[in-house]
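4.2 Preliminary Data

To establish feasibility before requesting continued support, the project team ran the inverse folding procedure on a target of 206 residues. The structure was first converted into the token representation described in Section 3, and no sequence information of any kind was made available to the design step. The complete token record follows.
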């Protein structure tokens, strides 16, 4: 799988690239130093984008919006020194699948990437500590179709894209989402992503 690392700090990017390729031999890392370069490098092989919010040609979360619009099905994990809960929440609402603070050590970064590559969600403790805990059903059991819908939601896909990906009507997707929210004890897409992170759900495509 191709991982696209988008960061304008060359030394950091080189270190992260080497770390990722050493720990995940199945991944090939490409580097982009700007949003424009990142959009040009996105292709059908790209499975994951590691995205810095401090790019020279994008203003913060604008980069998440641009990558999501350009590649609706790619997973986006934000790398940022700004791990305030409001920043993390905004990134998720714009379609990020995870968020890793830049100040995290290499062990935590590897754990985050491992979880993401297995279909999980990685969020910083700053958000999990301040976000109200969900109250899921005693045994959170989702049907295969509900798991499909939740997986695509965690990947940042809109309802329209979920409909297209699964061949479902908008009303069916809405019904499945309502059931997922109910079982997770949440009321929104962002809360569902946070709940999935807390519960350690693995949502890889079959």
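Position-by-position output of the design step:
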């Amino acid at each position: 799988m191709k991982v696209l690392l988008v960061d304008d700090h060359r030394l950091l990017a080189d270190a992260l690239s080497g770390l990722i390729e050493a720990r995940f031999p199945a991944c090939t890392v490409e580097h982009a130093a700007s949003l424009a370069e990142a959009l040009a490098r996105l292709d059908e092989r790209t499975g994951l984008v590691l995205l810095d919010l401090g790019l020279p040609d994008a203003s913060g979360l604008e980069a998440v919006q641009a990558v999501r619009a350009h590649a609706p099905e790619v997973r986006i994990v934000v790398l940022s020194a700004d791990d305030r809960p409001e920043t993390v929440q905004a990134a998720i609402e714009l379609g990020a699948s995870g968020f890793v603070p830049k100040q995290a050590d290499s062990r935590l970064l590897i754990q985050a990437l491992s979880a993401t590559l297995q279909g999980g969600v990685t969020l910083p403790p700053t958000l999990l500590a301040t976000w109200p805990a969900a109250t899921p059903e005693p045994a959170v059991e989702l049907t295969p179709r509900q798991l499909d819908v939740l997986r695509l939601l965690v990947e940042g896909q809109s309802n329209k894209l979920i409909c297209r990906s699964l061949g479902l009507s908008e009303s069916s997707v809405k019904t499945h989402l309502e059931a997922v929210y109910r079982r997770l004890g949440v009321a929104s897409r962002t809360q569902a992503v946070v709940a999935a992170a807390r519960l350690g759900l693995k949502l890889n495509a079959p």
